[in-house]
Each structure stands twice: as C-alpha cells, then as structure tokens.
Specification:
With 395 residues, this protein is an alpha/beta fold. It contains 13 helices and 14 strands. Helix 2 crosses helix 12.
C-alpha cells in the first residue's frame, strides 16, 4: 500500500449514509472420508472498514487478506468440524456508521471477533462500542499513538506505534550514521510529529546532537523552510511525513545547498519517492511496515497460496491476513466458543504465529516486540537492508 496516498485521503470522506451490512461469505462444509457432510460449527470474523468512498480500495484489500486467511484455514482444517467465515461491513470511514456496524455484528452470535478500522479517528470513535459489545478487535493499519493510550483492553494493534517507529529508526539506523547535528523535520499534521518526537527522544538518549523542526502545514513554504533548515547547518535530516505533503521540501533543500544524508519515515515508502526525488535523496534509508515476504522460509506455503488468491499483496492485504490469523489461532484454542471467551483467551495468550512473524501483545494491545523494516534507495529500487529487530524470521 502507498501509505502516502492513503494518509492523504484521511479526512477526505464525509459520507453520512447508513451502511448496509453485507451477507457473510459462506464457508465450505467439511466432508467426512466416506463422502458425507460433517455437522460444522461456524465462527465468523467481521471486518469493519470502508468499502465505498475514497478509501474503499484499502478497505477491500483488508477484506481480501482476511478472506484469504480464512480460506487457507478451512482448506487445511476441513476435518475439524469448525469452519470460519468473513462478514464485511462498510463503515464508510464514519464513526457513527462504524458504531452501527458493531451493533449489527453483535446481533450475529457467530461473530467472535472484528478486524478494523482503517483510520485513527474512526477506530477511536468506535472503541467504546467495541468494548460494550465484548469484541476483541485486531487493528490492521492504525499507527497513531493515541489508539492504545486510552485504557481499552480489547484492542490489538498490528503495526508499530509511531513514536516507537521513530525510536527504532534512531537506535537502528541513525546510531550508525556519522553526524554532528541532525534535525527531525515534520509538519503539524496527524501523521509525522509522533515519529519525529520518538526519533529525537532516542537520539538524545544516545547523546547525539539533534533537534525537532515542526513546520505549519497551513503556511508551508518549501523554499522558505529549506533556507531556515540549511541555516542551522545540519548534516542529517529525518523527514517525518507523507510524500505529498513533505516531499516538495527535498528539491527546495537541494536548491538551498543541503548536501547531507536523509532518513525517511514510511510515508515516503512509495515508488513515486524515487521517481520524483531519487537523485536528490541519494542513498536515503526509509522504513516500512511490511517485511520482504519472499525472504521468509517459514511462510513459503502461506505466501504461495496468498499470491495465488491475491496476486498483488499490499500492506493492507498482508495485515488483514495476519489479523485474521490472530483471531483464528485464538479461537482454535477455545473450549467455549463465545466472543467473551475469545477475548479472555487473547488477553492471556502467548505468541501467535502470523505471515508477518510472531506476535505477543502488551497490556494495552501494542506488539510486545515491535519491528520495522529498512530499505535503501538504490537507483530505481528500494533495496532491503535489515529489520529493526533481528529475530531469525527473515533470511
């Protein structure tokens, strides 16, 4: 997924029509060796994401990932008597509609958990309704710090939190860079400031000379900002934001005489970054959320099957797949098949294996061992460098 395009779309949708719940996809009924049908128990995973409007492509990708994980599970466990189904809901990127979807899901006794939502504001607006309905919710795309700082204990976030991402970049990449003075540069937008502050906090704890520059989006003048930055004589810049919003600063910095090194947040992990600014960025390092799946031997069969069902594996597809795996694996350990028992077991669960690697969660629902994946701009490509945390998952 192009995060820069995705984030630029947040807030652009203002739809108020009520969402119609879609009929759940019907799983195949298990067949006994003698050819007769088994009596199957159906467990349903609801997906609460935009399926219409500006963000519908991203929501549909999450649904594709969830469905692919369910199809794989049903194929491999056809003889167990339990089958899984997916029930998509269109939240239209609206808090009230999302809350209504939760009520509809709660009325379906087969629904044991939910994957959603897509954006921070809608997810946060729905948290109380999720809790009141006793749903375990696996959040596939929201990086915003606030999500897991509100005291809810039924939310499980898959991506690394923004401030932690900034810290990991500083401790993994910047720590090895020669630099006399560095700046983390961001705009006063929802995405970027938390990454920048995490970077600065970690770099200062490493006794590096760093500072934070927050530019006003409403009065952003790339040339003026570049001149002010260059006047401070930095030799390293960590740009925290999206390609669309912060990208114009790159040629402006070159014109102002900056010739130091760059680090980039995942808002720049987009092929258009290379197309538009590759020569000026040099061999900049950018981080992303998605590991190079083709370099993970332990998921070879899953990856092959997923590519067969969904040829274009985006971040949203992969995280939807992993979110479903977490709910499925937890449900498979249940003795009583209720959403309350699933939530209780997930709160006590140990490591869960997913296509994105093993997951454990802390008390607030963040990954216990968060990770990032670093790539270097090399010609016309992003070359994989390393993960933030070496765990033997990737070769």
């Amino acid at each position: 997924m192009k995060r820069s395009g995705f984030l630029a779309s947040i807030g652009a949708v203002a739809l108020t029509a009520r969402a119609a719940a879609q009929v759940p996809e019907q799983p195949a009924v298990p067949i006994n060796p003698n050819g007769t049908q088994q009596i199957a128990r159906q467990l349903t995973i609801a997906v609460n994401v935009p399926l219409s409007g500006t963000l519908s492509a991203y929501g549909s990708q999450v649904v594709q990932g969830v469905k692919a994980a369910i199809d794989e599970t049903n194929y491999l466990n056809a003889m167990t008597g339990t089958v899984f189904a997916v029930r998509p809901f269109d939240d239209q990127n609206s808090g009230p509609i999302s809350e209504g979807n939760v009520s509809a899901a709660a009325a379906d006794q087969t629904v044991i958990g939910i994957v959603g939502n897509l954006t921070p504001d809608v997810t946060i607006a729905t948290l109380l309704q999720y809790q009141n309905s006793n749903f375990a919710v696996v959040v596939p795309t929201v990086h915003a710090d606030q999500l897991t700082r509100l005291g809810y204990h039924n939310i499980y976030r898959l991506p690394t939190r923004d401030d932690i991402a900034g810290q990991l970049f500083a401790s993994t990449i910047f720590r090895k860079q020669p630099s006399n003075f560095a700046l983390a540069v961001t705009l006063d937008t929802p995405y970027g400031p938390d990454v920048a502050s995490g970077f600065v906090q970690q770099a200062k704890s490493d006794h590096r000379s760093v500072d934070l520059v927050t530019l006003p989006l409403a009065a952003f003048d790339a040339a003026q900002a570049a001149r002010a930055i260059v006047e401070r004589s930095p030799d390293y810049l960590f740009l925290c934001g999206t390609l669309e919003q912060l990208g114009p600063l790159v040629p402006a910095l070159a014109s102002a005489g900056y010739n130091g090194l760059y680090g980039l947040s995942d808002g720049f992990y987009d092929q258009n970054t290379i197309t538009q600014y590759g020569p000026q960025l040099g061999d900049a390092i950018v981080y992303g959320s998605l590991p190079p799946l083709n370099r993970i031997p332990s998921i070879f069969q899953q990856f092959t099957d997923l590519r067969r069902e969904v040829p274009s594996i985006t971040v949203c597809v992969a995280y939807g797949y992993a979110a479903a795996q977490i709910l499925i694996q937890t449900a498979q350990r249940l003795t009583t098949f209720t959403r309350a028992s699933l939530l209780t077991l997930l709160q006590m669960s140990g490591s869960l294996s997913t296509i994105l690697g093993p997951y454990n969660f802390d008390t607030f629902g963040d990954p216990l061992i968060p990770n990032l994946y670093f790539f270097k701009i090399s010609g016309t490509e992003f070359d994989y460098v390393r993960p933030a945390v070496q765990n033997g998952f990737i070769v």
